[in-house]
Design brief:
With 445 residues, this protein is an alpha+beta fold. The protein has 17 helices and 23 strands. Strand 7 and strand 8 (167-172) form a beta hairpin. Bound molecules: iron/sulfur cluster (SF4).
């Protein structure tokens, strides 16, 4: 749940990185940072807040140079604090090196302990710093040799951007959990978490960085090398269900069109259900509901007024604030709801507290029957690969069966999409492999 963006060989590097990070803002809202390379030294600026709050015109002016890497953060490992904001920059025997990381390193504690025993002093509590200390200890001839030697020691998920004077390197873990795409804008190369950031910055996507692959951009050229054999591809399927922007292209199709098909497959699985209207929980449930409506021939209605100024409730870290924003966020349009039987589609059901509030508000607006249709399977297990799902006990589907969850949220019926249909829609009919551990409880080793 972080976003990364890097650009090389461009006189407007900082401004284009601003545009890229702004486009990726949905991936994290706690902090933002950039490191620029003026050819001899790296300059950096990190702060808590949104991209447009952190980077004023003056700050961007100070980030001089033709190359920039940037990061927006939502904390998964390490607390929400400025010292964990990225990119991190280390002055070491390697010279100045910066890193921006999307993912979660599952062996970071063990590596950190052993590095500390050998004298490493960590600046942050973030897992991402481990790779810089490893690199400082086990050196190769070049930064890319050093990284190729050390990246295989990491377990878990990572898409990394590294920067040293004159060089930007992107690397993706051997399973490909988190996304990383390469694009081009004139003579500049762009690396980004999602294709939409390349589009909005005016570039064209070339391809995904492959699992276990590294791209080294230096002297206007991109060279590719493998630092580990690709393992079974386990792209995070939750990116398509919830996190990625609808206009991003994942596995060969836009997220929007995958979500539309997921909605249609959900309707096919629930073809016995009759209702007056189908609607989605805004904003992310809307496209699923449109797909559902087309397949089922039940008319779509937009029955909520969404207040766009409250933020995304699922990724606010504090429980009290999460419930408060759920109340503020959605207001029912009463005359469309009164006396109606409604299929309400949402992308996922995590704790159940938001769904309960929404069902309650539909009841108070006079809904006759509420069928909750979830466009993904029950989430029964936490994520260890960089998505901030709650711990196991907070996941309602880990504790309760479907009927008890239905009672908890107050709906008349509750249905989930099968994993088979989810994979079918996200895979675009191709032989795609996904991580679905939070739905299955089975993890890669
Ligand atoms: S466990 Fe779930 S959220 Fe985590 S990487 Fe796998 S599919 Fe994505």
């Amino acid at each position: 749940m972080c976003g990364i963006f890097g650009i090389t060989d461009n006189k407007d590097a900082a401004r284009l990185a601003y545009i890229g990070l702004f486009t990726l803002q949905h991936r994290g809202q706690e902090s933002a940072g950039m490191v620029s390379d003026d050819g001899t030294a790296l300059r950096h600026y990190n702060a808590m807040g949104l991209v447009n709050e952190v980077f004023t015109g003056e700050v961007l002016e100070g980030l001089k140079g033709r190359g920039v890497i940037g990061h927006i953060r939502y904390s998964t490992t390490g607390s929400s604090h400025i010292k964990n904001a990225q990119p991190l920059v280390l002055d070491s025997c390697l010279g100045q090196v910066a890193v921006a990381h999307n993912g979660n390193l599952t062996n970071a504690d063990r590596l950190k302990e052993s590095l500390q025993k050998r004298g490493a002093i960590f600046q942050s509590t973030s897992d991402s710093e481990v790779i810089l200390h490893l690199a400082a200890r086990y050196r190769g001839r070049t930064l890319e040799d050093t990284l190729a030697r050390n990246l295989p020691k990491l377990a878990g998920s990572y898409s990394f951007l590294f920067m040293a004077p004159g060089k930007v390197i992107g690397a993706r873990d051997p399973h490909g959990y988190r996304p990383l795409v390469l694009g081009k804008l004139g003579k500049s190369y762009i690396l980004a978490s999602e294709t939409c950031a390349i589009d909005v910055a005016g570039g064209k996507t070339i391809r995904e960085i492959e699992p276990g692959e590294m791209v080294v951009i230096s002297g206007g050229k991109a060279t590719f090398r493998r630092f580990a054999p690709a393992k079974r591809l386990t792209r995070c399927i939750f990116e398509q269900v919830y996190f990625a922007r609808p206009d991003a292209v994942v596995a060969g199709r836009t997220v929007q069109s995958a979500r539309y098909e997921i909605g249609a497959l959900l309707a096919r699985e629930l073809k016995h259900i009759k209702a007056d209207l189908v609607s989605g929980v805004p904003d992310s449930g809307t496209v699923y509901a449109l797909g559902y409506s087309e397949e089922s021939w039940i008319p779509y209605q937009s029955i909520f007024m969404r207040n766009h100024y409250t933020g995304r409730s699922f990724i606010q870290p504090d429980q009290q604030l999460r419930e408060f924003t759920a109340h503020l966020k959605l207001a029912p349009v009463k005359d469309l709801i009164k006396g109606k039987s409604i299929v309400l589609v949402d992308d996922s059901l995590v704790r159940g507290t938001t769904s309960r509030e929404i069902v309650k508000s539909l009841r108070s607006a006079g809904a006759r029957k509420i069928v909750m249709a979830i466009a993904s399977p029950p989430i029964i297990s936490p994520c260890y690969f960089g998505i901030d799902t709650p711990n196991r006990e907070e996941l309602i589907a880990n504790r309760l069966g479907v009927d008890k969850i239905r009672k908890f949220i107050g709906a008349d019926e509750l249905h989930y999409l099968s994993l088979e249909s989810l994979v079918k829609a996200c895979g675009s009919g191709r032989d795609e492999n996904f991580c679905a551990s939070c739905f299955t409880g089975r993890y890669n080793r």
